[in-house]
Amino acid sequence: MLRIILIRPGSTEFDEQRRIKGTLDIPLSEHGQAEATEAARALSDLHIDSIYYGPGRASRQSADLLASGRRVKLKELESLTNLNHGLWHGKLIDEVRRNQPKVYRQFQEHPESVCPPGGETVDCVEQRAAKALNRLLRKHRHGVIALVVPEPLASVVRHLLTNHDLGDLWRAECETGRWELIEVEAGRTAALA
Q1: Cα–Cα distance for residue pair 30/27, rounded to 1 Å
Q2: How many CB atoms lie within 10 A of CB 25?
Q3: pTM for this one?
Q4: Domains of the chain
Q5: CA 135, 139, 141: angle at the middle one, nearest 5?
Q6: Cβ within 8 Å of residue 162, ≥6 positions away
Q7: Which of 184, 121, 124, 119 is nearest to 158 (CA)?
Q8: Which secondary-structure segment (H or E) carries 8?
C-alpha cells in the first residue's frame, strides 16, 4: 500500500489577505514559514521516500522545510501546477463575490463548470493532475511519498485519490499549512470523475 501525505504549503501574504494566487509565484510569509515548520515537525517521525511539489516558491520552501534533516529526494513536477485563475489572479475573493455573484456561486457549487477569464477550468487541472498522479502511482506502489501543492489543486488531488467531492474551492483557496494522509491500494489509479 502506498501512503500519500498531501500537504498544503504554508501561507503567503495573498492567502492572509484572502487574495486569489493560482499560479502566481509568491514566497511564504512569516506565518507561512511557521506553518510549514510545524507541519514538518508533526511529520518528523514518519519516513518519507520522496517529496514532490508543484512550481512556486511557497511549495518549494514548504518542501525544503519538510526535507530538512531527512535523506529524501525532492522533485518539482510541472504537472502539479496550480489552477490558472487568469484575470482573477491577485483579486480579493470577496471582490469576485461582490462583482460577479452568479459566477462566484457557480464556482462554489459546480467549480467544474466555470472557466475564469483568461484562465483554465477545473477539468483541465483534473486531467493534468490525474496524469501526474498515475505516473507516481505506477512508480511508487508502496511506501510513503509527500505531495506539496497549494489549493485549489490540493482539493483536486484529494478528489482524484479518494473520490470525495471537490467541496467549496473558494473556502479551500486560503487553506494553508494543513496535511492529510491518504492510503492508496497498489494498482489503483487516479480516476477522473
Answers
A1: 10
A2: 12
A3: 0.94
A4: 2-184 (3.40.50.1240)
A5: 115
A6: 182
A7: 184
A8: none
